[in-house]
From TrEMBL:
Composition bias, Acidic residues: 61-80
GO biological process: protein histidyl modification to diphthamide
Organism phylogeny: Eukaryota, Sar, Stramenopiles, Ochrophyta, Bacillariophyta
Name assigned to this protein: Diphthamide biosynthesis protein 3
Region: Disordered, residue numbers: 61-85
Presence of the UniProt keyword Hydrolase in the record: no
Classification via SUPFAM superfamilies: CSL zinc finger
Keywords: Iron, Metal-binding
Pfam families in alphabetical order: Zn_ribbon_CSL
Organism for this UniProt entry: Seminavis robusta
Amino acid sequence: MSIYEEIEIEDMTFDPDELIYTYPCPCGDKFRITLEELWDGEDIAKCPSCTLRIAVIFDEEDLPELPPDEDEEEEEEPAEELQTKMQTLKESNRIKQATIQVAALFVQLELLQTMLFQHLVERWTTNCRGTRQ
């Protein structure tokens, strides 16, 4: 990739609405590079009408700040939605755990009833044998 020229960013025109730097190209169009590309470390501005490219010389600390990304604002809502879903899942898990504990108690109760019944049958059988003799 050959570079047509190296240009200081101060020599370029910044469009704050489009967040793009431009510089006149010999073909009549303009070299373009976005503020986001510059913040991402890209330093090559391209002309959309021809194959020429320029290297943009800049210091990151001199760049305007990027405005908040609209996608980030949209992501905040799903984050709140995710928190709500997580809370619902936690509550659902607590209910499931409590249900399992109650079921375990019923199983233990049935086991105790069975053991008590067996004990009563044994005593009754023993008492019946003792009264026959």
